[in-house]
Amino acid sequence: MADRKEFTSKTRKAALARSGKRCEAEGAWYGLPAGERCTRDLAYGVEYDHIILDANSKDNSLENCAAVCPKCHAWKTANRDTPTAAKTVAQSLMGMKTRVKAKIASPPKAEKPAPKPLPPRRNLFQRLEQS
Ligand SMILES: [Zn+2]
Q: What is the pTM of this model?
């Protein structure tokens, strides 16, 4: 994974000004109904989200910066900011600035599934070879 780069203060200020101090999270990408914007008041907390994951695009431009409320950011982090999710949806998200497509919607998951522990295969083989 590449180092996570952050937006410059200039970009953050511009994004906040663009948002009108209202959460810019929109559509299924942030767990909202398609085409619906959050608009929560950012006076209670604002976070700056890479709309397209920077691990894939390395895009820290204003166009890729969304001023969102902590709730929306947390939802996206939990449900979208994984390499698997990003790979499958990043391509179709390139047009998010103009239109959020309903087909990227998927049922929200409460939590990331915990990785399953690996079965003790080596021990099993050793036992079989000995017998
Ligand atoms: Zn929000």
A: 0.58
Contact of 17 with 90, CB cutoff 8 Å: no
In the chain, the amino acid numbered 63 is: E
Question: Which are the contacts of 39, defined by CB distance < 8 A and separation ≥ 6?
Answer: 22, 23
Nearest Cα neighbor of 19 from 1, 53, 42 is 42
- Helix ranges (H only) for 1-131 are 9-19, 54-57, 70-79, 83-93, 121-130
pLDDT digits (tens, 9 = 90+) for 54-90: 566 678 999 999 999 999 999 998 998 765 555 555 5
**Ion ligand 1 residues within 5 Å by Cβ:** 23, 25, 38, 40, 69, 72
Cα of 122 to ligand 1 centre, how many Å? 48
Q: What is the DSSP letter of 85?
A: H
Separation of alpha carbons 71 and 68, rounded Å: 8
